[in-house]
Amino acid sequence: RRTRMLRLALTVLAVAIPTAQCFVALPVGYVHSGASLPLSSRSVGVQSVLKVSMDGDSGDRHIRREFLKGASLLAIPFLSTVPTPASAQLPSFLGDARGDRPGGLGPVAGGRFLSLCDSENCVSTSEDVYSKRYLPSWTYNDEGKKKKTTDQAVEELASAVKEYKGATIIKKTDNYLYAEFEREFGLVDDVEFLFSPDGQTVEYRSAARKAKKSDHRSRIKALRLKLQEKGWRSVGYR
Fold this sequence. Notes:
With 238 residues, this protein is of the alpha+beta class. The chain has seven helices and seven strands; from the N terminus they run H-H-H-H-H-E-E-H-E-E-E-E-H-E.
């Protein structure tokens, strides 16, 4: 009975290998290097197994060895398609994950405000207070304590941004800071901070380059809580 089962399995394997070769491409490296396995060498394991299987029970051990050899040859093209960590990125048909750096960044209205949001995937202190995209400004001078200068506040903010995972400061002046925040799949959000001319508040805007929803509020809150250790607070309750 065992011999009959082995013969049946070998017959299935003999049919499966050439069939799989018709539908599954070999790894790119084989084709480019000219080292693709010839059909005769890929099927030698099966041929030898079939030959031994006809000799009776005396070749059982050899049959098992050759069966495993043939099965390993069948697995080669399938293993070549297993993704590696380097390929675990945004699908290529969706384009560059980072996207292009948007235009129109920076202070507007004489340096007093930042731009309004141009999509729902954004939050800004410049939005209407009743909008879902609105968040309140910050202040960096705690009441009853010695007031810090704008230069000091800019450095505190820059330090908090640098510590945030995936953040890269692109531009920093005496009253403005712009950073890119990289998140899942290499997607990028553009985040700006503007220190008001009166030296009291900080405006900000966080916008995603791609349509995939970003958790802007959690990021802003995390930065605020970090700065809260240095006396910063939100001007409002949203």
